[in-house]
Amino acid sequence: MSLWHRLGRDRVLLLFALPGAALIIAFHYVPLLGNVIAFKDYQPFLGIGGSDWVGWSNFSVIFNGDPAFLRALKNTLILTGLQSVFVFPAPILLALMLNSLFSERIKRIAQSILYLPHFMSWVIVVALFQQMLGGSGLLNNYLRAHDLGTLNIIGNSELFHVLLTSQIIWKDTGWATILFLAALSQIDSQLYEAASVDGASPRRQLWHVTLPGLRGIIILLFILRLGDSLTVGFEQIILQQQAVGRDVSEVLDTYVYNNGVLGGAWGVAAAVGLVKGLVGVALVLAANKVAHIFGEQGVYSR
Amino acid sequence: MIRVLKGVVLLVFCAVVIIPFVAVISTSIAPNKQITESGGLVLLPESVDFAAYRSLFAGGVVTQALGVSVFVTVVGTLLSLTVSCLLAYALARPSFVAGRPILLVVLFSMLFSPGIIPTYLVVKGAGLLDSIWSLIVPTMISAFNVIVLRAFFMNLPGELTESARMDGASELKIFGYVVLPLSKAVLSVVGLFYAVSYWNAFFSALLYLNDSRLWPLQLVLRTYVINDTQLGSAELGTELLPPQASIQMAILVVSIVPILLIYPFLQRHFAKGVLTGAVKG
């Protein structure tokens, strides 16, 4: 059958696919082309086509180490580090705890409580944290009423990175247990029986049965996380930036927003955003390669 | 010993999650006197007083924002579902001539995000700045949801659609009368995915809307609760002014309650949806 014939036969299906495909192309692929303004001196009134080409000069903030850019990079890397060390393992630990509960009912109640914060927007999460830990929040009112002094947590620039990390743990740890719990339920119970017949203590069973059973999913999620490692919570930070100042709160994404959309340095901001995106893709590809070398499947197969 | 420790850790984690919700809801309905005495938040209201809600729904900024959020969520979800189902259905048909290239377009879009600035310029170029549609159109389709729907459609028994085709039913009829009625479960999962993300959307509103009359609830929440801007009678459209604390908590509750209402449903279906996506994607 010729291509024209098949196109004619599938014209209704083509029509079905058209709006969705057009939206993905318009808001995912066309913006990719818009990245050319990283190489232009973009002026909104001239448009993309009318603005002058400037070569690599927008990238000079990156290569020459502009202090504001370096500050954003530093904060981003600190947060990436904190998140890899504290946020990433948290759901694994929580899933192991939930899994060791005997009562199915208690487990289900705990799950319904723990999944809830995931569905709250960052605006709500940040507002809740303020109401709980802020100067006139629940915690400090309690401390004040009992003459215990107060704790300065919200708006304290020294604690800002810790605060951000705890907010992410509060919001998403419960939800993230789903995939681990599913993986745990796939582990053959005969393995545990065999191990305990051989005299393995619960700790040895954890090490030799449970963790190997979770290996695949841990590696998969780690690769996905790696691709996002320069994305450290944009909405969350924008919402709280005013209170603590940019010194501790500026990250790459807020740098792009503040300098581009608000500051009008479109070309420079787009250049930083572009480099950030490319680094992300490179990290995923590299991590996937490493996973293949270690005999794991990774995100896509070879 | 270890068992007790695990139990305590779980209990504390659950308490830390649930207490903020309790405090916010309680404070929003607590009487003035109790709020003033406690100096802010209340964990258990002595009596129930809906004054804060009465002033929120008097027709001022919050009422308006609620209208915007409901419109964006309802209309957005319906449009998203329609567009995603049609695309997923076409992609689920093995013989579809353009199936392979379009599927690749969908899959590849999940690998990268296009960046804030270029997306902003596209939205601006489409003339959507300061339009309520800027909250719907750019995020109308999610590749992940299309993949979930496609996986479901592909698992439907082929004999059903085949026999309808033999009987001469058109593609639209098969889709509407055979496929959709069989897909209620997955449609509700994906619909909820979309609804929650429309309801929670904050950054697109901040980025694209200067006109505060178009603000959704999340942006009002940021301005009057997080940034602590005073809400006076001019903004609320009423002379009835309960304490700021209870008004702020009531705004929070108004933005939380719709999610709490659908939460039992969400919880049952979301977990399934996430796992389908993870396995089939």
From TrEMBL, chain A:
Keyword DNA damage: no
Cited CDD domains: TM_PBP2
UniProt topology in membrane: Multi-pass membrane protein
Localization per Swiss-Prot or TrEMBL: Cell membrane
GO CC, any one term: plasma membrane
Stretches that traverse the bilayer: 12-30, 77-101, 113-133, 265-287
Gene3D superfamilies xrefs: MetI-like
GO biological process terms on file: transmembrane transport
UniProt keywords, alphabetically: Cell membrane, Membrane, Transmembrane, Transmembrane helix, Transport
Limits of the ABC transmembrane type-1 domain: 73-287
Family of the protein in this entry: Belongs to the binding-protein-dependent transport system permease family.
Record-given protein name: Sugar ABC transporter permease
Organism: Kribbella albertanoniae
Lineage start: Bacteria, Bacillati, Actinomycetota, Actinomycetes, Propionibacteriales
TrEMBL record, chain B:
Main location: membrane
Entry's transmembrane regions: 7-30, 65-90, 102-123, 135-153, 174-199, 245-266
Location within or outside the cell: Cell membrane
Bilayer topology term: Multi-pass membrane protein
Gene3D superfamilies named among the record's database cross-references: MetI-like (1.10.3720.10)
Keyword flag Transmembrane helix: yes
CC annotations in GO: plasma membrane
Pfam families membership: BPD_transp_1 (PF00528)
Protein name: Carbohydrate ABC transporter permease
Organism encoding this protein: Kribbella albertanoniae
Organism lineage string: Bacteria, Bacillati, Actinomycetota, Actinomycetes, Propionibacteriales
